[in-house]
Amino acid sequence: MRSPHVLISGASIAGPALAHWLAAAGWTTTVVERFDALRDTGQNIDVRGAALEVVRWMGLDDAVRGATTGETGTAFVDERGDVVAAFPAGRSDTGGATAEVEILRGELSRLLYEDTRDGTEYVFGDQITGLDDRPDGVAVRFARSPERTFDLVVVAEGLGSRTRALAFPDARTTDLGLYLAYLTIPRTPADDDRWRWYNATRGRQVSLRPDNVGTIRAFLGFLSDVRGLEDLGSHDQAQILRKTFRGAGWATERVLSGLDEPFYFDAVGQARLRRWSSGRVVLLGDAAWCASPLSGMGTSLALVGAYVLAGELTTRDDHREAFARFEATMRPYVDRAQKLPPGTPRLAFPRTRTGVTGLRTALRVAASPVAQRLGGLSGRFFSPPADEIDLPRYRSVITGPRIEA
């Protein structure tokens, strides 16, 4: 009997993770990625809660932990770089602004790719341009490759997924009024292994994070009522960033100097869709449920979602039933992740001097020994609901000692 052939669009995290599980069940997988090569760049991401269990079941726990950034905690600083409040790295699977497992997005993507490349067909430099959903399969048109037919298509792309619009033309996303620019800059002797976080007035934020390759990952974040800046060219975006952050203080000028090198700029938003499947096409990861980087849950949702989708598909004879069960299992977990702390993002990006002072006062209280013992503010704001799902045990994809461990 022929094994089902699934096309997965997107080779970041969710796509290769799904390919791992489907291949483990004997399914045939093809991953198409619009970039010409694996994107091994990117900022710090964390793997929390149930996702760590999934990584362990994949047999990648040692590899992932061996590639962590070494971030030791989070420090909020003032204009002079003096520490306002400091929080140690989380000591559990879920707690802390700095999670137990912090890894570069590109490193995790590379590990997943290397784990799956022998059993999965990867097609780089191409993308889906058309989907014809038929009773016996999906005819897929590509920008470069000839048309092919697959049993199922999984769209594992980002918040602004272009492929999603082909099958879900009515899908809308929610803009949070926040822009983030991510850069990589040289490390200096003054840098340490903490995530340093600085707030300036006018809804501006600057942060520096260590990595494990000898550089610093920086980001610039700012609130704006103007929409569409993510669609501008990088030159115009750099000009906007330089103007917005001029004179902001602390390490801002150092970060702005990195704009001469490639950087990533995007609007922050969420995807709250009524449904994640249509016929033989299903959404996975940020394309389905982006909770935004502010949630601290994007990677965990991608890894858990890939496992659940594969488990349901390989357990049930009807893809429609599998898609329904996938959504029923993941929807409560996603809903919790999308409930951002009250006042987000404006509370974390105060516009006024009074607002910045108030935020720093709250952080000092949260970092006090008494508050740390009680969990309090730091527990509420720095511990996403990464464990709030009862993971099914799918023996169709996990066998032997992995599931018994």
Q: How large is the radius of gyration?
A: 21 Å
Please give the share of residues in helix: 25-40%
Helix vs. strand class: alpha/beta
Query: What is the C-level CATH assignment of the domain at 5-70 and 103-171 and 271-341 and 389-404?
Result: Alpha Beta
Query: Order of strands in the sheet with the most strands?
Result: 5-4-13-14-15-12-16
Poorly predicted runs are 376-380, 400-405
Task: Assign the CATH architecture of the domain at 5-70 and 103-171 and 271-341 and 389-404.
Answer: 3-Layer(bba) Sandwich
* Basic shape: globular
| Cα separation of the termini | 32 Å
User: Quick check: average pLDDT?
Assistant: 92
Sheet with most strands: 7 strands, mixed
Overall strand count: 18
Strand residue percentage: 25-35%
Fourth-level CATH superfamily of the domain at 5-70 and 103-171 and 271-341 and 389-404: FAD/NAD(P)-binding domain
Descriptive notes:
This protein is α/β, with parallel strands linked by helices and 405 residues long. The model is unreliable at 376-380 and 400-405 (pLDDT under 50). Strands 5-4-13-14-15-12-16 form a seven-stranded mixed sheet, sandwiched between helices. It is built from 14 helices and 18 strands. It has a domain at 5-70 and 103-171 and 271-341 and 389-404: FAD/NAD(P)-binding domain (3-Layer(bba) Sandwich). A hairpin with a 2-residue loop joins β17 and β18. α2 (50-58) crosses α9.
